[in-house]
Amino acid sequence: MRSQTSAQEPDLSQLITVAAVTKEYRASGGGKFRAVDQVSLEFSRGEVTALLGPNGAGKTTLLDMILGLNTPDSGRISIAGSTPRTAVQQGRVGALLQTGGLLPDLSVKETVQMVAALHRRHAPVHEVMETAGLTEIANRSVAKCSGGQQQRLKFALALLPQPELIILDEPTAGMDPTARHEFWDRMAALATGGTTVLFATHYLEEAEQFARRTVLMHQGRIIADGPTAQIQRQAGAAQIKVTWAPSAEDLAQLPAVRSWEVHQSGTGETPQITFRTDDADTLARHLLARTPAHGISVRPASLEEAFMLLTEKQDHSAEQEVSA
User: Fold this and answer.
1) CA distance linking residue 274 with residue 30, whole number of Å
2) Residue 265's domain spans which residues?
3) Do both 165 and 247 map to the same domain?
């Protein structure tokens, strides 16, 4: 978790500060449900961060509070030294959310022009349309746009106030793989220019490829926060693949092995084995120095695997606390 800056020496590189924020709702069966539980985070200018977690983890609630659409029960959120609502009113924040419809009878360009007229200051319409990849369909009615094209239109609307922060909730839903990649290329260019990007997604490969930082939420709490590659290492369970035909005794002597899987491609051929390990260096050295295994390759856990392992660990810890 990132350290908080002091009031005497403000860190101007920090755009968003979330300090000990909690939000509760009434549960359907009575009582209260804590959607966000004592969350503290900071986000720097130009940082691209993926906010991940299973359904019900608290991601959307947290994003809504950062956008000023909801208020914390306790704790504090500031954006560039202002409250979220003030920052939104000042045009510092743009958002592409799952909710919110578009007028189907307007054209793409008319939609952008209409929303631009609502802003005191805004980027040129042609500029945001080009950035969002809408120029070629400018005269198409919204009703005839695909789901991915409508997402790109919402993205253009989010860019109009030239925000310092863009918040994206499932931004590439409905886009094909090519469109998704083009979208993230545009987001990377914005981040290079100093825009902070905070996004929630179920496409974990997007977070793995494009997010410099990953924050993992589970049951309203932050269970992992750091550079995306570090989160993958934190989960452990790297994979080592070798070509080898070991005996049961050979397997029993291997260090740091959590599990293994044998792949037999054909009769008479040496099988391939995939080991899952929490200590890839130790296992790889043993395989190289003390066994005839060859064709050794090492792959860290994917972000999806890390996501699953870390949430499983959290659930297991919670079960132990309850049983104790």
Assistant:
1) 48
2) 237-299
3) no
**What's the total number of domains in the chain?**
2
Residues 103 and 191 in one domain: yes
User: Is 6 part of a structural domain of the chain?
Assistant: no
Q: Do 87 and 103 touch, CB atoms closer than 8 A?
A: no
Written as six digits, the tokens of 195 are: 């825009």
**Ramachandran class of 272: left when φ > 0, alpha when ψ lies in -120 to 50, beta otherwise:** beta
Which pair of tokens denotes residue 57?
Answer: 């983890």
Beta strand pairing call for 213-218 and 196-200: unpaired
Domain final residue pick, 200, 233, 266: 233
Backbone angles phi, psi at 270, to 5 degrees: -65, 130
Q: Is the pLDDT of residue 11 over 60?
A: no
> Do 205 and 250 fall into the same domain?
no
List, in sequence order, the alpha helices (H) in 42-133.
59-66, 84-89, 108-116, 125-131
Query: Mean pLDDT across the chain, nearest whole number?
Result: 88
Structure confidence by residue, pLDDT tens digits, 237-278:
788 999 999 999 999 999 999 889 999 877 778 999 999 888
